[in-house]
Design brief:
Blueprint: H1 2-21, H2 23-47, H3 54-71, H4 73-81, H5 97-125, H6 133-163, H7 166-191, H8 198-239, H9 247-251, H10 258-272, H11 277-299, H12 313-316, H13 320-337, H14 339-347, H15 352-356, H16 361-389, H17 398-418, H18 427-447, H19 450-481
Helix pairs in contact: 1-5, 2-11, 3-6, 3-7, 4-5, 4-6, 4-8, 5-6, 6-7, 6-8, 7-8, 10-16, 11-13, 11-16, 13-16, 13-17, 13-18, 14-18, 16-17, 16-19, 17-18, 17-19, 18-19
Length: 482
């Protein structure tokens, strides 16, 4: 118990240090996201004509719980086996295996509690009712069940990669599916309890409690049995990229220059590992724009389309729903471009390594240009997919709309990548500059797509030429300061 208290205390101290270094994200970005969610999405949902049915609500809840478990396996495995982390020192000390498990579980509980807080906010937005004892019980059980399920899934994932036992993996999938189902029922009870009857609420609470206890007992037994044998495999797995992906191999054909390819792979690794809280904030805001798009398209807030399926090819680009998709594409892509200046500022103290390795300024700038294009491409494709699923475009204009979204992505990402080294010492100012230019260029292009051709032909060449000189000057300046 003393060891566990010391480990948890050290984790809390590290978390406080992180919070002190990210006060801007906590005190400015987080309230901004929450405020936009409450005053924007909340009002839209209240006025929307579409409301998920009982089955749809349960399916969405189960999918959310399953995504939480699956997406956390890599991080949870690192917290259990802590390869290439400062906590690896604990393996050289007489610390019981159960202590390692409980310390990882404490971290998972803290993260799951944050998800539970988001669920409570969602309850307020959709009008789920007032707080009561049932809400408190469901919230506690949901947090505990998700945390234990993440630990169990991480143990099974590492052991499957090490041993490859099909029968054991099948049983683990069944238990993980049961945990996702119980977690979805508890999440639905938190967000929209009206979808469940009195007996179903009691069953969800009882089933969630029993499954949490069973998964905890099973995870504790498996961890005690497998930790020593799976430790080396976990360290080798985490030595590679997250998910076992070799970014160098994936980028080998897309990027010709070896130095640019290596820098791009490094930047993507840093992003996947969450080098800054800005990664989570930008991803959350980008997803928020897509959620607003779906809510607007399904709520009937837009004016009549004036032709719909009978509209001509030229008229379809100005349909209100099509314009909404394109503006959501610009907003979500521009939000993700904020990561570029933040990443440059994060790497600024280490740019002397590029100079020591003989990396030209043009290659450093080109790596950031490719990075901007890679991180913003999912936003453009997601905006197009959401628009098509919500019926924003006539059938004949689905592929042209995809082409427009890709064109908007290219304009926005090129503008942002070109400005990567404009003000590297002041990331806040750089974010504002990038946001203004990308929103202006992308907005004009979204409304009149030939404007993008003029911008690309007459404006971007000068921006890109200046950007290369600016990157070279900055790297030489950094090298001169060392």
């Amino acid at each position: 118990m003393n060891h566990l208290r010391l480990i948890v205390g050290a984790g809390l101290l590290d978390g406080l240090r992180w919070a002190r270094q990210n006060l801007y994200a906590l005190l400015v970005l987080a309230p901004l996201v929450l405020g936009m969610t409450y005053f924007g999405v909340g009002r839209t949902l209240r006025d929307a004509a579409w409301e998920p049915s009982r089955g749809e609500g349960f399916a969405l809840s189960v999918l959310t719980a399953l995504c939480l478990v699956v997406l956390s396996m890599s991080r949870a495995s690192a917290e259990i086996y802590h390869p290439r982390r400062p906590e690896s020192l604990l393996d050289t000390l007489p610390v019981a295996p159960a202590t390692h498990l409980h310390a990882a579980l404490a971290r998972r509980l803290a993260r799951s509690a944050a998800v539970g807080g988001v669920a409570v906010v969602a309850r307020v937005l959709v009008g789920g009712g007032h707080a009561d004892v049932t809400l408190a019980a469901a919230l506690v059980l949901f947090v505990a069940l998700v945390a234990v399920a993440e630990i169990f899934a991480a143990l099974e994932w590492i052991h499957w990669g090490h041993r490859g036992e099909p029968s054991h993996a099948l049983a683990a999938l069944v238990l993980a599916g049961a945990a996702a189902g119980a977690g979805g029922a508890l999440l639905l009870l938190i967000v929209k309890p009206a979808h469940l009857s009195g007996g179903e609420r009691a069953a969800a609470l009882a089933g969630g409690g029993l499954l949490t206890a069973a998964l905890y007992a099973l995870a504790a037994a498996l961890h005690k049995r497998w930790r020593a044998s799976d430790m080396e495999y976990a360290k080798r797995l985490r030595a590679r990229d997250r998910g076992g992906l070799n970014l160098e191999e994936l980028l080998r054909r897309a990027v010709a220059q070896p130095s640019v390819r290596a820098q791009l792979a490094r930047d993507l690794r840093l992003t996947l590992r969450g080098f800054s809280s800005a990664v989570y904030a930008a991803a959350a805001v980008a997803a928020l724009w897509l959620f607003v798009l779906a809510a607007v398209l399904m709520s009937g807030l837009l004016p009549a389309e004036g032709g719909g399926a009978s509209a001509s090819w030229l008229d379809a680009t100005w349909l209100p729903s099509v314009l909404a998709v394109k503006f959501a594409c610009v907003l979500s892509a521009a939000t993700l471009t904020a990561l570029v200046p933040v990443l440059v500022a994060h790497q600024s103290p280490h740019f002397w390594l590029e100079r020591a390795a003989g990396v030209p300024g043009a290659d450093a700038w080109r790596a950031k240009l490719y990075y901007a294009r890679v991180v913003t491409l999912p936003a453009a494709l997601a905006a197009w997919a959401v628009g098509c699923l919500c019926g924003a475009s006539p059938a004949f204009y689905v592929l042209p709309l995809l082409a427009e979204c890709v064109w908007l992505w290219w304009i926005v990402s090129t503008l942002c990548g070109g400005l990567a080294f404009e003000t590297p010492e002041q990331p806040g100012l750089a974010v504002i500059l990038v946001a203004c230019l990308t929103l202006a260029g992308g907005g004009f292009t979204a409304f009149i797509w030939p404007m993008g051709l003029a911008l690309y032909a007459y404006g971007l060449p000068q921006i890109l030429l200046r950007a290369q000189h600016r990157a070279r000057f900055y790297l030489e300046q950094v090298d001169g300061k060392q």
